[in-house]
Amino acid sequence: MAGVTDRPFRELCLRYGAGMAVSEMMSSNPKTWNTSKSKQRMVHEGESGIRSVQIAGSDPQLMAEAAQFNVANGAQIIDINMGCPAKKVNKKLAGSALLQYPEIIKDILTAVVNAVDVPVTLKTRTGWDTENKNCVYIAKLAEDCGIQALALHGRTKACMYKGEAEYDSIKAVKQAISIPVIANGDIDSPEKAKYVLDYTGADALMIGRPAQGRPWIFQEIQHYLENGTTMDELPYQEVKDILLGHVDALHHFYGEFLGPRIARKHVVGI
To answer: What is the pTM of this model?
Structure first.
C-alpha cells in the first residue's frame, strides 16, 4: 500500500470509521530520509488518530535508528514490515524476505523494541512459501521480543496477492500467543469481516486494498458488526463529494504537478 496510504487517504479512512491508519512504509536507510518522497511520508504533525509509522529494513541497528527518528517526528507506534512481497523490497532482504531468517528477525525486533519507548507492532505473512509456513513460530518469537500486536496477512510471500487468503494460519497464531492478533487479507465486505473475526478469533481486522476507492468500507463494517444489518449504499452525491474532496486534498498535499497524477490511482477504484 506504499504510494496509496498517504496522509490524505489516511485522514479519509479515519473519517469513515477506521480505528487506526498506518503510514506508508518507510525505509530504514537514512540516505533516503531527505528525499522529497520520504519527507512527505514523515509529515505527522496535527494528524488525526493514533500515529503508527511503518518501517522496513534488514539491519537491526538501522531499524532501531529509524524507529527513533520516526518517534522524534511524531510516531506514537512503530510498525515493522515483514510482510511486503515486492521484489524491490525483498532483494534488500526486507519485508517478507526476512521470513526465511528467524535469527535476523529476532535481532531486528529486539533492537527496535529496546530503542523506543512507544509500542512496537509487527506486520507479517504466513511464511515464505506454502511449504515453509512459519507464522506460529514467528508470532511466538515476536511476543517474546516484546512486540505488542501482530498483524498477519493470510498468504505466503510466494502467493503475493493471488488466490484466496487462508485463515487457518491466523486462527493458529491467535491460539498460540496472548498479544492482540490482527487479521488481514481479502476482507472486502461487512459479511466477510464478521466471518473472519468469528473464524479466526482475531482481535481486530486490517483492511488494505478493499479500502482503495471505497474508504467508507470501515463504516459499513462497523455498522454490520454492531447491528447485524447492512448500511444503505451511500448517495451518489456523497460519493461525488468524497471523491472531489479527496482529489482536492491530494492537490494541496502534493502540489498542482504531482496531485493530479497521484489522484488517478485513488479514483480509479470508485
So the answer is: 0.91
Q: Is 13 a catalytic residue?
A: no
- Rounded to whole angstroms, the Cα distance separating 177 from 58 reads 25
- CA-CA distance, 68 to 99, in Å (whole number)? 24
Per-residue pLDDT averaged across 131-135, rounded?
94
Residues 6 or more apart in contact with residue 105 via CB below 8 angstroms: 82, 98, 99, 138, 141, 142
CB contact set of 207 (below 8 Å; sequence gap of 6+): 18, 184, 187, 217, 218, 221
How many Å apart are CA 255 and CA 250, to the nearest integer? 8
Residues 46-92 have pLDDT tens digits of: 778 899 999 999 999 999 999 999 999 889 999 999 998 888 888 77
The CA-atom distances, in angstroms, between 229 and each of 18, 183, 191 are 19, 22, 10
State the average pLDDT over residues 225-249.
94
E strands in 77-194: 77-82, 120-125, 149-153, 181-184
3-state secondary structure of 151: strand
User: Locate cell 505488542: which residue?
Assistant: 148
The dihedrals phi and psi of 46, each to the nearest 5 degrees, come to 75, 10
Angle at 21 between CA 102 and CA 18, to 5 degrees: 125
| pLDDT tens per residue, range 174-195 | 999 999 999 999 999 999 999 9
Using CA atoms in the order 80, 43, 5, 166, what is the torsion angle rounded to 10 degrees?
10
Catalytic residue among 13, 84, 135, 145: 84
